[in-house]
Amino acid sequence: MNSSPIVRLEHVQKTYIQGKIEVHAINDVSLDIQAGDFAALCGPSGSGKTSLLNLIGGLDVPSAGKVWVDGVDLASLSRSELSEVRKNRIGFVFQAYNLIPVMTAYENAAFVLDLQDVEEKEKHQRVMDTLKAVGLQGLEQRRPDEMSGGQQQRVAIARAIVTRPAIVLADEPTANVDSETAKSLLNMMANLNKQQGITFLFSTHDQHVMDKARRIIQVHDGRIESDSAKSDSAVS
User: Fold this and answer.
1) pLDDT(2) > 70
2) SS (H, E, C) the chain
3) pTM check: above 0.70
4) Which of the four pLDDT bands, split at 50, 70 and 90, describes residue 1?
């Protein structure tokens, strides 16, 4: 096994105080995500899978334990340094797409590259290549309200991968699309994983995602209940 995983969690806990009650959203979780994984955190609502994704993405901080992303200890970073890690090393895909409505598909995909001050010629090439890779060639100038839900999620995926992040975190990415669109999106992400080596970690309770994932991490009551890899022949 690779001794330098893309993500490492060691004895991570996340506790919230609700009134006088302590709620343990994450309870002593240790986990490695390797480069090239196509993995899914699975479990019912309230199981802790989204909380885990938020900790890995630096959107939340653990109450105890350590989180490393691409070799960086997130707890050691200042707020601005953490923002730089999120900008440069982590791609995010959300179930609600989170596109900027006044921007075109091209502009949404280019948004983080603009924040990174990528040179214009390189930015244009990377955005056009990425939109083509996600099946949006010819739709570059459409705004979100001119696109279907599946197309909007493809823009969101393009935005997440165009920066060439160490890992893409996808929180319920198929929740707002129909089953056929979900299958199409998952096939596309699986191809990006195989052809470009992009590491994906999903949070999901969608059977389509679980069927497509090559690694299933079952989460229950804030703990990892099981962690199993599937053979290629077992992947739908």
Assistant:
1) no
2) CCCCCCEEEEEEEEEEEECCEEEEEEEEEEEEECCCCEEEEECCCCCCHHHHHHHHCCCCCCCEEEEEECCEEHHHCCHHHHHHHHHHHEEEEECCCCCCCCCCHHHHHHHHHHHCCCCHHHHHHHHHHHHHHCCCCCCCCCCHHHCCHHHHHHHHHHHHHCCCCCEEEEECCCCCCCHHHHHHHHHHHHHHHHHHCCCEEEEECCHHHHHHCCEEEEEECCEEEEEEECCHHHCC
3) yes
4) very low
